[in-house]
Design goal:
Blueprint (H helix, E strand, L loop, with lengths): L2 H9 L9 H31 L5 H4 L5 H36 L4 H16 L2 H11 L4 H27 L2 H9 L4 H31 L11 H9 L8 H32 L23
Helix pairs in contact: 4-5, 4-7, 4-10, 5-7, 6-7, 7-9, 8-9, 9-11, 10-11
Amino acid sequence: MTAHALQGDLESTALYDVPGPQARRRHFLYGIVSTVVILGLLAWILYLLFDTDQFTAAKWSPFTYKGIQELLLRGLRNTLKAFLYASVFSLLLGAVLASGRLSVHRPVRWAATVCVEFFRAMPVLVMIFFIFVALKVQPLPALVAGLTLYNGSVLAEVFRTGINSVDKGQREGAYALGMRKTQVMTYVLGPQAVRAMLPTIISQLVVALKDTSLGYLITYEEFLHAGKLIASNLDYDLPFIPVVMIISPIYIGMCMLLSWFAGWVARFERRSLKTEAVDVAPAEPGTVLPGGSR
């Protein structure tokens, strides 16, 4: 390799030094050691599972019965129902509270700030229990209301921060064109802020999905509640670990599906006609002002 090529290679990696022969050997050794440690940890976990008889037929036989399968499917359906309600209402509440915090009217801004700070600081489990016990609300509305108040207040801050992150010139230019505040927010600031807010929004929706498991504490028959009923069954030798091994991948899969959906929305936004570049005709001689000379 020539000195010029070596210099170009060095300049292309400005964030770190190019590893030499000894560093590459050391990194290769670190990779081998890490792989051995991870494989050893997995082998130890499998040994404990087999040693405690977690793969016996008695513990896995419940999942072959139609009644158990229907119980799990019903719990999964209830989980998705609570999540859909909570996510939609949280987004709506977050948008309303964010609009209040961005309002030019001081009383509206103060009221929205108090609501956001109060519900964001309140533990979600306390809100769910208060709505269920003190207000005597049914399990599903109590769970959805608690999740909506907490996640909506968090999303309000996400929306407000995303709107404020848009360059100030975009707002000023839109007002200079004569657009009203609602139009500026809908057509100028909102679409640009969504791209920046989307990862945080999806992360908060994942939190809402996982928090639906709190419903079993108020006797809502969601997915975790169904698993708890199966795991505590003495007839099947308390199959706690098998239930965890069935339920956990489903929760992880739903969270990954949300992440995939966020990526799809981001790609769709990039392909949207509203965000694609538009060819502008070159300027031609014309009137500078109405009624002026060419």
